[in-house]
Every structure is written in C-alpha cells, then in structure tokens.
Amino acid sequence: MSHLSPSSCPFPCSNHPKRLHRSKKFREHYNQAQLFYNSMSEHEKMHIMNALSFELDHCDDPIVYKRMVERIADIDLDLAKGVAEMVGADIPEVAGRPNHGKKSKGLSQEDFPPENLTIATRMVAILIADGYDAVAYNAIKAALAAQGALPFTIAPRRTPIYAAGESKGSGKGVAPDHNLEGQRSTMYDAIFIPGGADSIATLRKNGRALHYVREAFGHLKAIGATGEAVKFVQDACSLPGVEFSESNNVVDSYGVVTAAQTEASTFKDAINLVKNAKDFSSAFSYAISQHKNYQRELDGLSSMVAY
Question: Name one GO cellular component term (predicted).
Fold first, then answer.
C-alpha cells in the first residue's frame, strides 16, 4: 500500500506525530471496585474478606501484605480492617479515600433469585442403616422425586438395608446407591436422616455418618431429620441458637428441619414451598429451595463445627 499523502489523510493531520492516549478516567482505579463491593450482600462481603485473608496469609513478606491492606483501605475501611487482623498487617484507622456509597443492581448473586421456588435437580442424600423408619424414608423420597429432586440412598454398606420389622434375607431390603465411604456430603445439596432406633444406633458408631452431618452443616446445606435421628443431628451440631423439635411440631432452625415425633400429618403428598410450613415434607423442601442457609455463616455457627 502506498503511503497516504497529507491531503488524503482521513483525519486532520498536524506537524506532530499522532498518539493514542487514554482518558483521565483510566487513571481512576477505585470507584468501580467500591461500587462492586458496596453492592454485595453481607455474606458475599464476608466471602471476599475470607478470600483476601486466605491468599495474603500465604505471603511471607510483610511489605507485600501491608501494602495490599493499604490498597484495600482505598476501597473499604471495614474490609481492610478485617483482612489486616487476619494476616497480621497494621490495622488502618482511616480510609485511603472516601467510599462513595453507591450500589448497582446485577452485581450480587442475591440480585438473581429464581422466578419460582423449586428443588428440581437438587441432589439429596438419605442416610439409613438397618432398622430405619420406612414410613419416613418412603414419604420423603417420594416427595423429593415428585418435585424433580434426585434422592440418593447412602448407607454403611451397598448391600440391601432392611427397615425396622423386616428380616434380613426377606427380599424387602433397599439397595443403597452408595456407601458412606464412597460418597461425601459435598456431592449433595441436602441430607435427610429418617428415624429408627437401630438405624441411628448404627450411624452413631460410624464416623463418616457423623461427618456427613457436620460437613453439610458447615457448608450451609439443608438438613432434615425425623424421630430418633433428631437427637443424632442435635448431638452432631449442638450449637447455641440452633433449635430442635421435641414433639410432633416441625422446627426449622437455620435450615435444620426436625420433627421428633412423626404421624400421618407429618408427611403430606401436596408440597407447599413456603416459609414456616407446618408439615415436615414442605418445610424440608422449602429449606432445600433456599440453596444454602447463609445466616449460619453470618451468626458464626458454621465456623464452630469441625468438618
């Protein structure tokens, strides 16, 4: 291509070389960061602080994490204070620059709730052992499947598990999908444990079963328990503020749904996904539909469980 003469140049030419320059707004690095952080929900802000603290904890050079805290203070003072305390930097007393306080929709995950509550495609682990309560097991498994959820039976072994009153070898046992050693609670969105004295006595002696409950609680997942399983879950997650059922009344506390005594009205075929539902099936389904119970995290309960 031949060189363009000044007269054919498509834009005004001068005697000086033409350069591309960024506008002044490209020199401003904080307004968008503040906008993003301000728009987060409380639990998302906590996740950001924990993530920054985790990464900077791997840095051994004080000058690096101290300067990073100074930069974070240019975005949000409280965030900087929290990170500084965790990583050992000097805790800032004043912000590097004022936070404009603006927020924007569409930045937080909380801005995208589902149009309709549903538990479709949610994977739910049902923990049983020999002597489990067949009524509770069958009712919840059917209720979950009817809503499009995916129930999986988990047991100490993969050979048939027999309900209370069933004799081994009768051919009536349930074949589990997995054993406790083969699957972690992290593979599922929620867990349910039906009662049955012998079943719970067996699960109490199994460290994997105990870990299932604690890990699910720590990961803020819905937990359901009926009958004798209520005390099992209570012992696994005995924390201040978490309430458990002591009668046929259904209790939903921090996404832990329990019914100590079950009767015909405890399990209903018609599921109503509403908060404070009176029947167990609906209350547990509602807890699953919430995805996770972030209030556990905000109240410091999830960090009190070893998992």
Answer: cytosol
176 domain-assigned:
yes
- Residues 138, 276 within the same domain: yes
107 plus 144 within the same structural domain: no
Beta-sheet pairing, 256-259 with 251-253: antiparallel
Structural domain count, the chain: 2
Dump pLDDT digits (tens) for 135-154. Answer: 999 999 999 999 999 999 99
Instruction: DSSP for 133-201, please give it.
Output: -HHHHHHHHHHHHHTT-EEEEEESSSS-B-BTTPPTTSS--B--SEETTT--GGG-SEEEE---HHHHH
Q: Range of 131's domain? A: 123-304
Asked if 265 contacts 249 with a C-beta cutoff of 8 angstroms, the reply is no
In a domain, 165, yes or no: yes
Amino acid at 173: G
Cβ atoms of 296 and 233 closer than 8 Å: no
Q: What is the pLDDT of residues 257-282, one digit of tens each?
A: 999 998 877 888 788 889 989 999 99
32 has pLDDT over 70: yes
